[in-house]
Structures are given as C-alpha cells and as structure tokens.
Automatic annotation (TrEMBL):
Domain spans labelled YgjP-like metallopeptidase: 23-220
Record organism: Roseovarius nubinhibens
Pfam families, alphabetized: YgjP-like
PANTHER family with a match to the protein in the record: UNCHARACTERIZED PROTEIN YGJP, UTP PYROPHOSPHATASE
InterPro entries (UniProt xref): UTP_pyrophosphatase-like (IPR053136), YgjP-like_metallopeptidase (IPR002725)
Membrane-crossing residue ranges in chain numbering: none
CDD domains: M48_yhfN_like
Gene3D superfamilies cross-referenced by the UniProt entry: Metalloproteases ('zincins'), catalytic domain
UniProt name for this protein: M48 family peptidase
C-alpha cells in the first residue's frame, strides 16, 4: 500500500491499495474521515492508476468539498448527546462535568476539554447501553457475557459467539431511540447469529419502530465520527 498526492487546489492525498479480486480501478472517498483510496487490480501499474486519479481530480474535490468539516471538541462547540444539541462551556468550579441550561459544563484547563468530554461520554454510553442490553435480554429470557465499548467505524455493534456484546461509544451522540435499536439488534443476535427473517422478527419484537432508527443511522451515522476529541480547536 502506497500513497500519492495529486497536485491542485487543494492537493489530494490518495492511498493506493492492490486487490487480486478487483477487476477495474476504483476510487473511494470515506464518508467518515474523507480519506481517498484507490484500488488497483492486477496488471495495472501505479502510474496508470495515478493517471486515472488525475482525470477524476475534479470529481474527488467535489466530493471532499461536500463533506462536513471535522469538529474539534472544545469550549463553545455544539455537541449532540442522546440527540440533544448541547454547548460545551467552561465551569468556574467543581470537578465533575454536569449538564444544565442546554450546556455541558466542563471544569479544568481548556486543553483538556476534549479528553474530559470523551471520557464522560464513554461512561454515559456504557451506562445506557448496559441498561438497554439488560432490558432486551430480559425480554428474550437470555443473557450476555459482557459489554465492551470501542470507536469502530465499520459497525455500530457486534455480538460474539460467546455472548459478548460490543458497541461504538459514539452511539451516545445519536438520539436515544437509535442507541436502543442497536442494543436490540445485538441482543437479538444472542438468539439468532444471522440476519434471517427470524432474526429481524426478534428485533421487531424488541423494538417495533426499529426501521426508523436504522434509516437514521444510514443517513446520519457517519456524521457522528466528525467530532474529534484529540485535536486542538485551533486545528479546525
């Protein structure tokens, strides 16, 4: 895997990959972080791939320009929590983060705001995902072996063959019913480790309105990854 930069305004970094299964050159712009990747099949040289990417440079810039900007979490930034947009504000006193008056009050140095808010969100996400998972597991008369949180980009949740549930902590940024749907989806896998008609019948039993939440994730889910907790506000 290599990388090339296409000249222009702005220049575009393109990650080059090779695939034995690919039949033609393909370009992809990640909806999560804007990474541009190009896949080359066998028999196509890197130079040929670069020529192809140059021909598509205007198309790539159009897609990149239409992406929402990354948001560095800091004082004054609006952040969705359980679907409610709250503004991060400095707290004059206290040690714990609190929410009131439409604000997330964060004590401590400004340079630590992103990390502190992320830690707070993870704790909140775990509490709510445990509650939802417990509720749905009880309805099905089953149990799970544990819950873990990750910052996955390819999926919002998973269920292992041993009954372990894993979730993206960023679900706490989505509306509450969306978080509940993902919990219902993964708990249903404790009974059906597939996506058969019987599986979806279980999901509907647990969450009759799951289709609306599923559509929300398809439409808005990628935008939850635009919030960054590890970069300074000056880097936006």
């Amino acid at each position: 895997m290599g990388q090339v930069t296409l000249p222009g305004n702005p220049p575009i970094d393109v990650v080059i990959k090779r695939s034995a299964r690919a039949r033609r050159i393909s370009l992809r712009v990640s909806g999560i972080d804007g990474t541009v990747s190009m896949t080359l099949p066998r028999g196509i040289s890197e130079a040929q791939g670069v020529d192809f990417a140059r021909e598509k440079a205007d198309w790539l810039r159009g897609h990149l320009a239409g992406r929402p900007d990354l948001v560095a979490v800091a004082h004054g930034v609006d952040l969705p929590v359980a679907g409610e947009m709250l503004t991060i504000a400095p707290a004059a006193s206290g040690r714990a983060i609190r929410v009131s008056e439409g604000k997330i009050w964060v004590p401590g140095p400004a340079e630590q705001v992103g990390r502190r808010v992320q830690s707070w969100l993870k704790t909140l996400a775990r509490d709510r995902l445990v509650q939802a998972s417990d509720r749905y597991a009880a309805r099905l008369g089953t149990e799970y072996s544990g819950i873990s949180l990750r910052d996955t980009r390819s999926r919002w949740g998973s269920c292992s063959s041993r009954g372990g549930l894993s979730y993206s902590w960023r679900l706490i940024l989505a509306p509450a019913e969306v978080l509940d749907y993902v919990a219902a989806h993964e708990v249903a896998h404790l009974r059906e480790m597939n996506h058969s008609a019987r599986f979806w019948a279980l999901v509907e039993k647990l969450d009759p309105e799951f289709e609306a939440s599923r559509r929300w994730l398809r439409t808005h889910g990628a935008a939850l990854h635009r919030y960054r907790f590890d970069i300074d506000a000056d880097a936006r």
